[in-house]
Amino acid sequence: MLKNRIKQLAKEYFKDTVAIRRHLHAHPELSYQEKKTGKYVAAQLKKVKIPFKHGMAGNGVVGLIKGNNPSSRVIALRADMDALPIQEANKVSYKSKNPGVMHACGHDVHTASLLGTARILNELKSEFEGTIKLIFQPAEEKMPGGASIMINEGVLKNPNPSGILGQHVHPPLEVGKIGIKSGLYMASADEIYVTITGKGGHGALPHECIDPILIAAQLLTSLQQLVSRKGNPTIPSVLTFGKINSTGGATNIIPNEVKLMGTFRTMDEKWRKKAHRLMIKMANSIAKSLGGSCDFKIVKGYPCLYNEPLLTEKTKQSMIEYMGKKNVVELPIRMTAEDFSYYSHEIPGCFYRLGTGNKQKGITSPVHTNTFNVDERSLEISTGLMAWLAMN
């Protein structure tokens, strides 16, 4: 039975997959700097004789596994490779050797998993029809996002996939569980940079000044009201300003300038565009009414991530066949963002979650923290499951 053969191979290759994950974890590289990672992935594919191209979007690697009648159908599988600017605090043998850089979002797991999946699929290529495209993508963590660059450079052409699958570690899910959601799943993400200019002076003489801190305070409150009152309440939106500072200023000094940095996220592209216009208009109006000026810049980031319902339902049923119904969990929407979303706007896509947590072992830290880790048993599940999904 094919399913059992896949599970057997996933178990057989498990130690090798763990070794790959640990190597990658110990040697993380930041977005757009994954030079050694790309070479390592290419070497692993070469070792098992899977043809590939190296260098797309800088450090990306694209491999092809051709089954019987290779032009009959094409499916793409994607893993991201970059790490985060975090100093690792874990005390493990494979701790990051690169100061201030850590695989704190599980991309080492994603890359190792896809290499393990590739090995299984290559072993079983006489058992399926069509072609499987392997996409090892750089720079998921930093705009404009490696996915957008790879798409612009033709990763979804020659051959053209009819769909794409991606997986992501998920510490809240215990190892052995898989999470999935049809339709809109993750939010768009835009960066906001605001500079408010006033007129500084003595804090005891505010009538002689134009206070940019006061303007900033009113702006922050009004923008939150805009999002909550102008947006459709059925459409999730988040506006968060995570940084505010002034140029100069003290207990008795009004500064000349205040800078704000934030993020705007939503699940609707039309509202996203409208909200951009409304925020810029409001900011300029408030600053002007209080005698100051405002430079309000929005850097447009990743779009909403959409799991195509037909592909997602087929994927879910295949997951149930492989994992058992009780181990496949329905996920809620998330206001986090992922550049896999770019693929989902080009072709049918399905992005799902791999359970990696283990409360009994204390493996509970969220992604993007310096103590993030995974239960490595998830690597046996991730490799076999993705191979099964691709073959189905």
Q: Mind explaining what this structure looks like?
A:
The protein has 392 residues and is of the alpha/beta class. The protein has two domains: 273 residues, Aminopeptidase; 110 residues, Alpha-Beta Plaits. The protein is built from ten helices and 16 strands. Strands 1-2-4-3-5-16-6-15 form an eight-stranded mixed beta sheet, with helices on both faces. α6 runs antiparallel to α7. The longest helix is centred in the last third of the chain and has 21 residues. The radius of gyration is 24 Å and the shape is elongated. The model has no long low-confidence stretch (mean pLDDT 97).
State the main characteristics.
392 residues, alpha/beta, Aminopeptidase, Alpha-Beta Plaits, 8-stranded mixed β-sheet, 10 helices, elongated
User: Which bin fits the share of residues in helices?
Assistant: 25-40%
Oligomerization status of the protein chains: single chain
Order of helices and strands: HHHEEEHEHEEEEEHEEEHEEHEHEH
What kind of sheet is the major sheet? Answer: 8 strands, mixed
- Per DSSP E runs of 2 or more residues, the count of β-strands stands at 16
Assigned CATH class of the largest domain: Alpha Beta
Distance between the termini: 14 Å
CATH superfamily of the largest domain: Zn peptidases
Tell me the count of domains.
2
Radius of gyration: 24 Å
Q: Which band does the percent of strand residues land in?
A: 25-35%
Please, what is the average pLDDT? 97
**If classified by CATH, what would the architecture of the largest domain be?**
3-Layer(aba) Sandwich
Helix count from the secondary structure assignment = 10
Low-confidence stretches: none
The best one-word shape is: elongated
CATH fold-type name of the largest domain: Aminopeptidase
Order of neighbouring strands in the sheet with most strands: 1-2-4-3-5-16-6-15
Structural class: alpha/beta
